[in-house]
UniProtKB/TrEMBL annotation, chains A, B:
GO terms for molecular function: pyridoxal phosphate binding; transaminase activity. This is Pyridoxal phosphate-dependent aminotransferase. Belongs to the class-II pyridoxal-phosphate-dependent aminotransferase family. Histidinol-phosphate aminotransferase subfamily. Pathway: Amino-acid biosynthesis. Keywords: Aminotransferase, Pyridoxal phosphate, Transferase. Pfam families: Aminotran_1_2. CDD domains: AAT_like. NCBIfam families: PRK08153.1. Residues 38-357 form the Aminotransferase class I/classII large domain. InterPro entries: Aminotransferase_I/II_large (IPR004839), HistidinolP_aminotransfase (IPR050106), PyrdxlP-dep_Trfase (IPR015424), PyrdxlP-dep_Trfase_major (IPR015421), PyrdxlP-dep_Trfase_small (IPR015422).
Length: 371, 371
């Protein structure tokens, strides 16, 4: 089936690919549900009960459009971060905001640099807007600021993408290291700093930069630590003159009213965040222990997932993933070698961790038997 | 404050405008809330109680991303319309889908034709993607298919936008007339048919076209008759090969999980839709009666709003709107002459209609006294 002849040339050039397949789509392909949903780095511990209550209350007001300025949420975020409301734009998740950012700052034919195997949705937007993606490898299972800066300089990149902590490895750099990287961003380039997982990271991991620094836009989300992936709320932090330009392209009435209310309530429930951080820390230790019981190594993690080295090549890790799926456990794996020797397991509740402990030995044995 | 020098040239060329200011933003400017929110064509009658219950239930599952394929909703919509699921793409409201459509089908420099004073968000997307907007006037307070087709032929337009029933006048063409227009869409062009209000229209208003007709994409929403504007759920109906291309650019995990659940429940509650239609019909009659009591004409409406002719020029209508706002009644008015002689009043509950009946005479008198 060929494309429509009326498609714009850029659109015609794009493949009809999906950055990755969602858990429900996988369940439909399999013909049965997963028992443990540990592959999408969602927070199985859920959102704050206060956020749920706020969303329930807002459901009765859903006949109203959401506030086009996300005023209350933006002001609360500004107070939380100690910046001005004009330093913040709220959007439908980091995914949506990354799309707007690429559209605003990357003209067709220009180059964005990121790490081989990093978040595929960023590349989806780069190619989707006619940009070119240049890649550098991870170094010691971490994103490599030196290599990113070097490549950006070499190719005259407009955008540099770094996730910190990073997905899919769970590794991280200190906020001070990131600040040193920001200072070295080449003239004419902009660092896209994705801090989706930073609430799970050790103190000092958030970038130590001035919000008015024009070399960097930072991205945060309610999808991870706040347990609201299905609500689609993210935000970008940056200099006023750069945040302001999002008004040129954003979907002004695109925010769900329930999501705005839920995020505001979630932000104010610090106790719940502390509770979730504790549960995630315990689950990370449990995953590492399960890995060790099976003779596998677990990478240190500053996120709500642990990347487990299956001790072989990509084919073995893929087999382990498939054998876990055959036992109704959903996990994912990094895309690019040599990180694709690993599988990535989201922090789960004790009962899901028990299931993993029970079934990983079988899955490993079956995967090894395939070879 | 000048733009950042790193902005892409197209982005740099765009004004930082908002298609229109939302009610909450107006309330913040005024410093006090409206008592009657009758300006955004929301359904004050709310969504189906079953939709509210579904959203409340889904709030507890909000830690999960929404289904990236909106599978259940898309299949239910397909059954509802008697088409295949592959004929439907679900997105975050018609606004978001219009943005994707323009991005897919209008290359920079190409032309989109629409009516002077029609839905501003379409033009926002056209200019936002580097297209050029060409306009034709309304004819007898209705969109003018002949003029739209003629202009499209003359300028070699790629896109033609028609809303039916139309916003802001509430007027309409029969589905058979629209089908005749579709048949005459010039080779190489595509009709964007916005049917946001069609559930309020007389039987036979929905376009009588084959869903596989490659000359037209139709757009529907849960924001109006289904009372879920704040949930951001819309969909496009069209040929499989054209619906498929949305996969190239859409935000795959961009749908709110609560909104997906709410829309599915709303779609299945036909009784509620019938109830809302009845309330809206009664409110339309009430608005027309209030207009008549004040010596004003009300236009026939196939929507959930009534456009009232203030009997003067744009300045008078603007004064009436301002005097209503000063009395805490929020309405809007059409943007372009000669339609800007009118104000547009959303169907309200009896208490809001009573407020309008009480305050319109004062507002009119005050507006006339200004001149």
């Amino acid at each position: 089936m060929s494309d429509d002849p009326r498609l714009a040339p850029l659109a015609a050039s794009l493949p009809a690919t999906v950055p990755f397949t969602g858990p429900e789509a996988l369940e439909r392909l399999r013909g049965r549900p997963f028992r443990a949903r540990l592959g999408a780095n969602e927070s199985v511990f859920g959102p704050s009960p206060k956020a749920i209550a706020a969303m329930e209350a807002a459901a009765r007001e859903i006949w109203k459009y959401g506030d086009s300025a996300s005023h209350d949420l933006r002001h609360a975020l500004a107070a939380h971060h100690g910046v001005a409301p004009e330093n913040i734009v709220v959007g439908a998740g980091i995914d949506g905001l990354l799309g707007s950012t690429v559209r605003l700052f990357l003209a067709p034919g220009e180059v964005a640099v990121s790490s081989l195997g990093s978040y595929p949705t960023f590349d989806f937007h780069v190619s989707g807007h006619g940009g070119r993606a240049e890649k550098v490898p991870f170094r010691d299972d971490r994103e490599d600021p030196e290599a990113l800066l070097g490549k950006a300089e070499e190719v005259g990149a407009k955008l540099i993408y770094l996730s910190n902590p990073d997905n899919p490895m769970g590794s991280w750099h200190s906020g001070a290291e990131v600040a040193r990287m920001v200072a070295r961003v080449p003239e004419g380039a902009l660092l896209i700093l994705d801090e989706a997982y930073v609430e799970f990271a050790p103190d000092g991991t958030a970038a130590e930069v001035d919000v008015e620094d024009p070399k960097v836009l930072r991205f945060r989300t309610f999808s991870k630590a706040h347990g609201m992936a299905g609500a689609r709320v993210g935000y970008a932090l940056g200099p006023r003159h750069m945040i302001r330009v999002f008004e040129k392209v954003r979907d002004h009435f695109g925010m769900s009213r329930t999501s705005q209310s839920g995020a505001l309530a979630a932000l104010q429930d610090e106790l719940w965040l502390t509770h979730v951080r504790g549960e995630v820390a315990a689950a990370r230790e449990r995953i590492a222990a399960i890995a060790a019981e099976n003779g596998l190594g677990a990478l240190p993690s500053a996120t709500n997932f642990v990347t487990v080295d299956c001790g072989g090549d990509g084919a073995l890790a893929k087999a382990v993933l498939e054998e876990l799926a055959a036992r109704d456990i959903f996990v994912r794996m990094p895309f690019a070698a040599p990180q694709n020797r690993c599988i990535r397991i989201t922090a789960g509740r004790p009962e899901e961790m028990d299931l993993l402990a029970t079934l990983l030995p079988e899955a490993l044995a079956a995967a090894r038997a395939r070879g």
